[in-house]
Amino acid sequence: MLRKTKQRSIIMDILRETRNHPTAEEIYLKARLYMPKISLSTVYRTLRSLVEEGKILEIKVFGENHARYDYPLEQHQHFYCRKCKELIDLYGDFYYPNNIPHKVEEIRTIFIGVCKDCLKEENDEKV
Ligand SMILES: [Zn+2]
Ligand SMILES: [Zn+2]
Fold first, then answer.
1. Is the same domain home to 18 and 54?
2. Gap from CA of 100 to ligand 1 centroid (Å)
3. Which domain holds residue 10?
């Protein structure tokens, strides 16, 4: 039981500190630094239960095989760069249609495009 609590708190800490939406494998590599005996399947299982409890977010990007995980610090949306594959946090007010005839509990939007760093690189290449 104690072990389980420790695994959960390590995974939560990793997600709170890394703001780049790591995959389960990336979380596993980091978690091993703190708990050398942790297994990848334990990481998957722990992530799944944290997601079910609403403690962390699971984000699936269309076209990617691996889900990414996020610690919900503040309400935010995401921008996905199709060039560098970064998933970037977007804060601010977004406007959504208010004529949805259902009970909306959560809004998860992924904006897809080219991030400003990649755009800059593209422009530099042209010069
Ligand atoms: Zn990019
Ligand atoms: Zn995020």
1. yes
2. 33
3. 2-70
**DSSP tag of 61:** -
The number of the ligand nearest the C-alpha atom of 85 reads 1
Furthest CA-CA distance within the chain: 60
Instruction: Mark whether 87 and 62 lie in a shared domain.
Output: no
pLDDT digits (tens, 9 = 90+) for 93-112: 888 888 999 998 888 889 99
Pairing of strands 110-113, 77-81: parallel
Interval 15-45: pLDDT, tens? 999 888 999 999 999 999 999 999 999 999 9
Q: Which ligand is nearest to the CA of 87?
A: 2
Tokens of 93: 């007010």
Question: Is 27 within 8 Å of 20 (Cβ atoms)?
Answer: no
Q: State the pTM of this model.
A: 0.84
Q: Which ligand is nearest to the CA of 120?
A: 1
Question: 63 with 90, same domain?
Answer: no
Total domains, the chain: 2
- Looking at the fold, whether 59 and 105 belong to one and the same domain comes out as no
